[in-house]
Amino acid sequence: MSTLKEVLAKKIDEHRPRTVKLLKEHGDVKISDVTISQAIGGMRGVKSLVTDISYLDPYEGIRFRGYTIPEVMEKLPKPEGKDYPYVEGFFYLLLTGDIPTNEQAEEVVEEFKKRSQIPQYVIDILRAMPRDSHPMTMFSSAILAMQRESVFAKNYKEGKFNKFTCWEDMYEDAMNLMAKLPHIGAYIYRMKYKGDTPIEPDFSLDMGSNFAHMMGMEPPYDEVARMYFILHSDHESGNVSAHTTHLVASALSDAYYSLSAGIDGLAGPLHGLANQEVLGWIQDFMDELGGEVPTKEQLKKAVWDTLNSGQVIPGYGHAVLRKTDPRYASQREYCQKHLPDYPLFKLVSMLYEVVPDILREQGKAKNPWPNVDAHSGVIQWYYGLVEYDFYTVLFGIGRALGVLANITWDRALGYPIERPKSVTTDMLEESAGIK
Ligand code: NMX
Ligand code: MLT
To answer: Is the pTM of this model over 0.85?
Structure first.
């Protein structure tokens, strides 16, 4: 058994009694009330999900297993000579809650290599799809197509389901999937945008470096890949991609079904697709100005024009956060170091100076500050990844780390099928005393 699986098994054994005790002895303790506006308004703020993989404080931002982004970047082991940690070591942290040693992280690197071969039928399916299919459609289809590989589904079908050990099958599926996703993403990119010239993996490299290599990108894009996958990995459980993955898995659907569904949710413009929307929006008004970097006044006008036409400003606002997203700040820090004079970075910085005041003046958005998507496209563009339809696939590879860790723990703790209760409008009117 690998060190990761052994440590995870130990953590699960230690954790289970906590969940059992809470359920048996304190199950009636109330942690949230639900108002009519929450029921109609997307359940905002209703505390009804449990996860230990990450926690989102509205004012501090995300912590992964209790660690802030700077702590994660500083404490996790890194490939030799690199600034950003092994993604594989980060997955170890998400699964176990422990910062791995260098050896433990490298063990996961090796394990992923062994599991990374994409089946030929997945390549055939991708190649059979119209080339103008959105890369997220291709990505989700590839994941779903591999469902026949599921260890969980196979053992379930053979009557081997066991409530206490089924997390091991979910773990195997999660590891197999996670090992393949960067390869699938890079294959889609090279097939769709680079004249159908896939690049073979280099198995001497870690996930981030190998992804950069398969994309045909030079260093320091490997650092960008490691940073990007880690930053996008998880945002507690209520966001659309994490919640969907958890919800589908709660029906004992395997990791392939669940992740594919989560990725479909990520493809919405209010969620992960916002990163491509940001770039499209910026490029549109730069085109209108004949490619010139706009002045602050021109930018203000463009923001108001967008709002007045009934659209949202992509990359701004958040359902939970009430301050600048630390994932935005982390990418900004990278830009200040590596591309301080890049015009698109200056433009994104200028938006930061302009948009929050306008959103406050408009008075609708509860959070006028930028989220992760406001910044992610700039770095990709700088390194030559200008096909912004592809940006959400990068988000998806990262998001898989968090949601796959989550559903492994869902099975370990025996979380039941998710099934909230609905009410009718008549019932709401009765509760409100107006009927
Ligand atoms: N631009 C214009 N209006 C906004 C924005 C924005 N960026 N953010 C919120 N609003 C509006 C929102 O549409 C709503 O209007 P209405 O009452 O007419 O329906 C009002 O402000 C209140 O919304 P909030 O409660 O502040 O936000 P909510 O929790 O409903 O939605 C988002 C959160 C993230 C969906 C929303 O802020 C938004 O649409 N942002 C732009 C898209 C985006 O950047 N999405 C990426 C989120 C992060 N991610 O990676 O997934
Ligand atoms: C995410 O990373 O999932 C987004 O910031 C959306 C969210 O947390 O609601």
So the answer is: yes
